[in-house]
UniProtKB/TrEMBL annotation:
Classification via Pfam families: Brix
Subcellular location: Nucleus, Nucleolus
Assigned GO CC terms: nucleolus; preribosome, large subunit precursor
One GO process term, biological-process aspect: maturation of LSU-rRNA
Function recorded in the entry: May be required for ribosome biogenesis.
Keywords: Ribosome biogenesis, rRNA processing
Domain Brix: 120-303
Listed name of the protein: Ribosome production factor 1
Length: 327
């Protein structure tokens, strides 16, 4: 009855002014954690986040108006602070014009590949008794890397597999390890003299799990892009990954394999270019995708007992500073 009476009075007296939205102003010392009631605490947290968002948007509009008013005299936009641009300087950062780096590249284990003296031939295998997801990942990885062959372990030790690979002219050995039916590790050994890198693998996505994926990849040799491998260690890892693919890509296939290093995580993506017009180009992901984290780099081929390690990731000693990166 009360609501009906209010409605009748509104009709008689005409429409009233629109309701003013309530603005919540929290004091600077406001703390959501002091509210004891859970529902009330959640409600006030949402309102507080909305106010923070409004204030941030208002400050952004104010700065934009000030810049438009100043015109050409406006100061340059401040560069936002990120972990990448605040990275701690590494003394092993590679200078492309360094003679020592050029000499190392001309004499290291990957020099025959970059001099086009050898053609990559890759053997992809798994841990013992692989599950279906690991098997499918190996099969899809073989379609990304040209001249790659998938064989199953059948209980053989890696020390016995490596001499057989060398005898059959394989240049690299890739071992996909798994845990609880999920691929979680990758061992990459360059043959016949090493080195051997051990990666932790995560965020594996097969082709059927990728949204808006393209058609199956063709047999064209893809282009390889290496991003942000700046240190001597990162330079070695980048050359190791590049040596998996033939040196001369077939650009007519419009396929590209990307290894992007960010905060020592190596993100792998496989795309195809789509030319929409003369000025617009899109990309279409083909899959699979995964992320690598370097755990160790060993001289020579795989030898877990007596191998000499060039670099080992030690979390308690190396991860003390979030802005310190090794690749």
């Amino acid at each position: 009855a009360g609501n009906g009476g209010a409605r009748e009075r509104g009709e008689a007296g005409g429409p009233g002014p629109p309701p003013v939205p309530e603005r919540v102003l929290f004091p600077p010392t406001f703390s959501v954690s002091e509210i004891k009631n859970k529902q009330r605490r959640h409600f006030m947290f949402v309102r507080w986040k909305q106010q923070q968002r409004r204030e941030k948007l208002a400050a952004k509009k104010k700065r934009r108006k000030e810049r438009e008013a100043l015109g050409d005299k406006a100061p340059p936009k401040p560069v936002p602070k990120t972990i990448e641009n605040q990275r701690v300087y590494d003394e092993t950062t590679v200078d492309p014009n360094d003679e020592e780096v050029a000499f190392d590249e001309a004499t290291d284990e990957f020099a025959p590949y970059f001099n086009r003296q050898t053609v990559p031939k890759i053997l992809i295998t798994t841990s013992d008794r692989p599950r279906g997801r690991t098997v499918r990942f190996c099969e899809q990885l073989a379609t990304v890397i040209p001249n790659a062959h998938v064989y199953y372990r059948r209980g053989l030790a890696l020390k016995r597999i490596i001499p057989q690979c060398v005898a059959r002219d394989f240049t690299d050995l890739i071992v996909i390890n798994e845990d609880r039916k999920i691929p979680n590790g990758l061992v990459l050994s360059h043959l016949p003299d090493g080195p051997t890198a051990h990666f932790r693998m995560s965020s594996v996505r097969l082709r059927k799990e990728i949204k808006r994926k393209g058609k199956e990849p063709t047999e064209h040799v893809p282009e390889v892009i290496l991003n942000n491998f700046t240190t001597r260690l990162g330079h070695s890892i980048g050359r190791m990954l590049a040596s998996l693919f033939p040196h001369d890509p077939q650009f007519i296939g419009r396929q590209v394999a990307t290894f992007h290093n960010q905060r020592d995580y190596i993100f792998f993506r496989f795309h195809r270019y789509i030319f929409k017009s003369e000025k617009k180009v899109g990309i279409q992901e083909l899959g699979p995708r995964f992320t690598l984290k370097l755990r160790s780099l060993q001289k020579g081929t795989f030898d877990s007992k007596f191998g000499e390690y060039e670099w080992i990731h030690k979390r308690r000693q190396m991860d003390t500073n979030r802005r310190k990166f090794h690749l």
